[in-house]
Specification:
Layout: E1 8-10, E2 33-36, H1 39-44, E3 59-62
Parallel strand pairs: 1-2, 2-3
Length: 68
């Protein structure tokens, strides 16, 4: 998905989702995409690597205390 202006993604109860594939411009002044998700989902995500723009360092995870 190409989303140059996307700032935040909320993910809830999507346990089959293993990859977060968002194509955004990356530069030193581009803030990381905020991902509001369950902590357990974040740790189980399958990362493909920075070379394909799919690495945890490109995202800013946020975990609600009310979810796993």
């Amino acid at each position: 998905m190409f989303a140059p202006k996307l700032e935040t993604v909320k993910i809830r109860d999507c346990w089959s989702l293993r990859r977060l594939s968002v194509d955004r411009p990356t530069s030193s002044n581009t803030p990381p995409l905020e991902v509001d998700c369950e902590k357990e989902w974040w740790t189980c995500n399958q990362w493909d690597g920075e070379e394909v723009n799919h690495h945890p360092s490109l995202y800013k995870p946020g975990h609600s205390k009310y979810y796993k």
